[in-house]
Design goal:
Layout (H helix, E strand, L loop, with lengths): L9 H5 L8 H34 L4 H10 L1
Length: about 70
């Protein structure tokens, strides 16, 4: 389905239209950002833990043999 104006909606995507937020909305946004930051931190710690565990794993003998054949 073709749009009447092919550039319709570009203003909202580009951020050129500004909206005015109330103090309550700003406070709510700040609380959401803080909550999201806490989740991001815990996710980051979990990913780092998995990565560190992977680094400590031994290389399987068959893979070590294959790598040795490359030399």
């Amino acid at each position: 389905m073709a749009r009447d104006n092919p550039r319709e909606g570009d203003a909202s995507l580009s951020g050129t239209e500004k909206s005015v937020k109330t103090d309550k909305e700003k406070s709510s946004d700040a609380a959401k950002a803080k909550s999201r930051k806490g989740r991001d931190d815990s996710l980051g710690r979990a990913l780092k833990s998995v990565y560190d565990e992977t680094l400590r794993e031994d290389i399987p003998d068959d893979l070590r043999d294959l790598l040795g054949k490359l030399d």
